[in-house]
Amino acid sequence: MYCPQCGQQQVSDATKYCSRCGFFLDGVALVLASGGQIPTRYVQPANKKLSPRSQGIRQGAMLMLSTLLLVPLVAIITVNFIEPLEFLIPVTAMVCFVGGLLRILYAVLMQDEVAAPEPMPAVGYSPPVAQFDGSVRHALPPATANAATGWRPRPNTADVYQPPSITENTTRLLDKDDPKAR
After folding, report:
1. What is the dihedral of CA 40, 43, 45, 48, to 10 degrees?
2. pTM assigned to the model
3. For residues 98 and 104, what is the distance between their CA atoms, to the nearest angstrom?
4. Higher-confidence residue: 63 or 137?
5. Which residue has the higher pLDDT, 165 or 113?
6. How far apart are CA 63 and CA 153, in angstroms?
7. Which of 83, 100, 101, 120 gives 60 a disulfide partner, CB atoms 3.0 to 4.6 angstroms apart?
8. Do 41 and 72 contact (CB within 8 A), yes or no?
9. Which 3 state secondary structure label does DSSP give 130?
10. What DSSP letter does each residue of 131-162 carry, written as one string?
């Protein structure tokens, strides 16, 4: 597999990041494995659903806040209308407050942090559609058979100066007559 950002060939298809530019390749491997279609877990929905953990925390907070409304309401009802059931006031306070606290703890400890994505149908290739005038328009212009102009010609590497070898220079020095040697 090659990195789509920099073109670096990867060592294996199991790599998560490009070794040259650091591009995240996990989604690219899944797109290649699915034949060019984007997997549904990478498609972001328009309306984001709350995760089960967030829903649980909200429910627990609402139950704890309902203590502020229910306890005075139960107190008014039991004191004015039902005299022998005054123990319902602390029971209501404990149930609402402790129940909300337990709901929050359950959500934090046991529920998923990420909401499950809704399955969406995969969008496949659709061929070009004919326009009103009957012609078919493509996204890209037709390919040209002419070569691109404006490029400089390739340099001839045979024209590059190459220095003489070390052995030739040494041999020339030995060939000279040494006046002391006579």
Report:
1. 100
2. 0.40
3. 10
4. 63
5. 113
6. 78
7. 100
8. no
9. strand
10. -TTS-B--SSPPPP-SPPSSPPPPP-GGGS--
Q: How far apart are CA 85 and CA 71, in angstroms?
A: 13
User: Which 8-state DSSP code applies to residue 23?
Assistant: -
* pLDDT interval class at 130 (50, 70, 90): low
Domain boundaries, the chain: 1-43, 52-110
The per-residue pLDDT for range 135-154, each reduced to its tens digit, is 666 666 666 666 666 777 77
Q: Are 66 and 48 in contact (CB under 8 A)?
A: no
Task: Quote the mean pLDDT of the chain.
Answer: 76
Please, are residues 17 and 25 in contact by the beta-carbon 8 Å criterion?
yes
Q: By percentage, how much of the chain surpasses pLDDT 90?
A: 23
User: What local confidence, expressed as pLDDT, does residue 134 receive?
Assistant: 62
Separation between Cα atoms, residue 67 and residue 100, nearest integer Å: 9
What does the alpha-carbon distance between residue 100 and residue 110 come to, in Å, rounded to a whole number?
Answer: 15
Six-digit token string for 81: 């209308």
